[in-house]
Amino acid sequence: MLENYLPVVVFIFLGVAFGVGLTLIGWLLGPSKPNEEKNSQFECGFPAFEDSRMHFNVRYYLVAILFILFDLEVAFVFPWAVVQSGLGWFGFVVISVFLFLLVVGFIFEWKKGALEWE
Amino acid sequence: MTLDNVYLTIALSPLLGAIIAGFFGGMLGRKVTHTITIFGVLVSTVFSMYVFNIHVLEGGDIFNNNIYTWMQVGGLNLSVGFLVDNLTSVMLVVVSFVSLMVHIYTIGYMDKDEGYTKFFSYISLFTFAMFMLVMSNNFMQLFFGWEAVGLVSYLLIGFWHHKESAVEANLKAFLVNRVGDFGFLLGISLILMYFGSLDYIEVFSNLGAVEGVTILDGSLVITVICILLFVGAMGKSAQVPLHVWLPGSMEGPTPISALIHAATMVTAGIFMVSRMSPMFELSDVALTVVMVIGAITALFMGLLGIVQNDIKRVVAYSTLSQLGYMTVALGVSAYSVAIFHLMTHAFFKALLFLAAGSVIVAMHHEQDIRNMGGLYKKMPITYITSLVGTLALIGFPGFAGFYSKDMIIEAVHFSSLPYSDLVYYAVVAGVFITAFYSLRMFFIVFHGKSRVDSHTAGHIKESATSITFPLIALAIPSVIIGYITIEPMLFTGWLDNSITVSSRHSSMAELSYIFDSAASMIPHALLTVPFWMMVLGIATAWLFSLHKTEWADAIKNRFHRTYYVLDSLYGFDRFNEIVFVNGVKKLGLLLWKVSDMVIIDKIVVNGSAKFVGFIGSIIRPIQTGYVYHYAFFMIFSLLIILTWTLFSGNNPQLNVEF
Amino acid sequence: MTNNFSFEINSLLVALPEIFLLSSIVIVLIIDLFLTSKFRQATYYLTQLSLMVTGILSFNLIGHPETVIFSNSFILDNMASVFKVFITGSSMVAMVYTRHYLLQHSLYRGEYFVLVMLAVLGMMVMVSGYSMLTLYMGLEILSLSLYTLIAIARNRSIAVEAALKYFVLGAIASGLLLYGISMVYGISGSINISDISAFAHDPSINSRDTLILNFGLVFLVIGIAFKLGAVPFHMWVPDVYEGAPTSVTMFLSTVPKIAALAMLVRILVDGLGSMHDYWSDLFLALSLLSISVGSVVALMQTNIKRMLAYSTISHVGFIMLGFVTGVVSGYGAAIFYVLVYVLMSLAAFGVIIILNNKGYEADQISDYKGLSKNSPWFALVMLIVMLSMAGVPPFIGFYSKFSILQEVVSAGFITVAIIAVVFAVISAYYYLKIIKFMYFDESDKDETISAPMDIKLILSINGSLILVVGLFPDRLMNISMSLL
Fold this sequence. Notes:
Chain A is mainly α. In chain A, about 70% of the residues lie in helices and about 0% in strands. Chain B is built from 26 helices and four strands. Chains B and C meet through strand 1, helix 25 and helix 26 of B and helix 7, helix 9, helix 10 and helix 12 of C.
């Protein structure tokens, strides 16, 4: 059973070896002559204006979550669409119930003001 | 209405009354309260008579059914059920009738009392408990009823709880009954142990299983069980030496003295032994014990009645003595005679108590008979009914008590148990004593010179109708009930389906051999010793209390030692106080010092508290409040469990080939 | 396969209570959106109505022949129906207590009611789940609703903290549960309870499969033990109980226990009953740990909600003890215990909620000082509950402990029974401590506590039931015993 996993081990080994190997070669062979200019941020530009970990507006998350919700909805609808001819009315009713529930959620969030930015 | 509904109604209608009176009595007012409770008991009375008619007069089948299963533990079935046969029917009629009379009487007697509605609630509750006791079909319910009637009895003895003596009497009754109940409970436990059931019928039908089985030092199990059960009966029915609480119980209001401490509850022991007759019949030893204890109670408690001056205490000692008679009857296997006497006694003793209560009310709660006298003119109804009660009590030919007491004496006469001849003399002597103290009290209270102080004398008048009506209603059965029921009850089989008498005990058989008819007993009585003992008693009483009152004092002085013994009630109270009360106090002190202070407080309580605290202090730091600690703890526990699963013996082989 | 998709009205009728409840949720959600605050009360009454109708529908299904629908993933049997009735019923009682609290603490929002209904739906799915995934789905519906309910008091940082802890730890537990499911699925090839049962019962099952099944079992048990709050997966319980708004604490400490028990029965008894030898040891360890830790640590709590949290843990130990026996009557005793526990716990939190009115957060045990003088009736109910929880006869708590111990003894675990009794005695201490505070200490506050009529009524019924059922336990006992 375990021998089935041999290719995986080989891949892991190769991946690690490749990454470490190339870095190692660069470190061994490359010249290293740092100076002040070279060590400053963005050697070719200017110092950063702000921290790279910037704050997002909290509403962004709300919208993002809502987006994922309806994004996933489509993910369910696709497979249904593929076989819907075979499912007939039953399939139609089922997907309608599914969509109806999501619409209820949509109404809720809309009415609650989750979609308004300000 | 099916029969089980009838029985349920009998039991539950007083309970309903009690609940309404207890919780809403204050709201409803006195009139509504007593109407409701009396109606509840009236319903029971009517249905009891109906049940009596069905079972006894029409010879209906025994009813034995579980109404409700309370719980099942293992194979043991604890349930509420009714066993109604002729014995139960007789008890139902007696209890409900006396209870009804007492309810009516209470209207007049408790008129000015603050606890009016509470009192009605209690006596209705008592009636319910008594019904449950007599209708029970298993030992658990019997015990429940037993304790419930006891509970109400304590509540009522201490009803006037502002009186210190009432509270003391209440405590005494409680403690003494605990002794009896302990024996009773042990007996029930033994029954459960040996028969595996608490159902009467199941136990009775398996009695063969314990035949010859012995316990501990080799005494027969059945004897031990019977004696233990009888210890319970001794507590409830106040047999020597557990009798000390009954005179004290007179501290309670008079209606309950009549209902609980004369007519019904104290006879529960008699009823119980009769109900268990199939068991008692198997043990001559137990029967002898029963008989001897009964005889001692009958004789010696009667003697105490002679020296009492409190009107209620005289009646109380006469009750003790009569209970002794019933117990003697049980001992000689004349169960039906015991029940017969129980019934007649219930009527005439309730009557005597209520009459005494009537006198007490008229005398403005004066209970010392030395301060009475010559009341017959002022209270004619009380006078006549008291006379009827007294004659019934002393066994004047024709009255109810005559038949029942005569039958007991005869039954003892025919008994073949050891000591039965001594017991015979005791009960015959008891007749003289009964006549003496009863008539003494009667003469002193109603005849002779009035010794009432002048202030009270002007107010004495016959009591209200609510008091006199029960007196009259009880006087009638006190006269006739014996004449009517002696033949069917004792000889033509009213109680045959409830009572078992072994063929070895022949008293009843011989009694029926000599019995001719109720009427012919009266002339025949003139030729018997008990009759002349009674006449002698009456004459002596007349001599000492009316004719030559100074003789009484002379004798008292001449035999002052005897008087002292009687006056100090044979020293039972002193003995209990010195040995039990002080002994227990000392023991308690010792135990408190050694076991409580050292073992329990220091080692068990403080020690375990410290130990628990120690464990807690180990566990508590884990609860840090940091979610990553929690998560780590969960995963860690998971790993431990998995490891354990892997290595525990329960598991299949570890050397699995992967 | 296509057969399973055929649209059969009859099979939907079997799930009618759930379908009705889901529709009600949708309707209540929409209606609440358009209600002005003046008519907000309507949400409450609609919720109660929906729960009641759901309960009645479930009640009507009692006695329905056992039916499995939705591709063998949803079962209707007597246990499911009876549990659904109890779940809806006790949720209704909880809602009565809750409304007052929500109004007092300005938490009265439509979402609260919708979330409670969703949680009820989740629990109903759990009791009817007949495949691992249905069960898991029910559990998640329940859990997600509960996380949100706790956080609904979002201005109180302690509530948010509790919600987050519960969520994170719950997610881990869910992960473990799913992992267990996947292991069982991997070895048996099915997520269906009856297929798994057939697989585990197969006498030709080899030892390797047994071991993997056993590992899966461990994960499954841990997942559910977390939900029940058994030691050592109990860490969230006190924090969440303390942090959550009291009405939520009441809800999450009572009703979900029924559903979790049902899930336990489905997976362990129906599915892996033949593995009893393997999981009974695990249960024994968990239950003894729970009883001991619950009893001992509760002694030191000063917050009554935390104290009840540990008390719950100890009760859970007793419930799990019923499973150790491995006999039907033992499971019945566990069911009996859980129903009794819900009854007692509802009453306890009912009193706490009443005392929790504005400006007087009665979550310290010392707040109960002198309660008997200020409000004797509530004190009496609390007295009954505490005595019952301590296992004093004739209250129902005695009988439930007694029946569990009786089963444990008859299964031969006498030592275990003794240990359990010892800890039960220890736990009596902190129940009695509250009684002592209520009856023998002087209050430092001096106001009488008032409550609306509906709460008083329900609380009185609830309290007296503890006594009445204690006097006549056989009816409930028979129901519990007949479910398996």
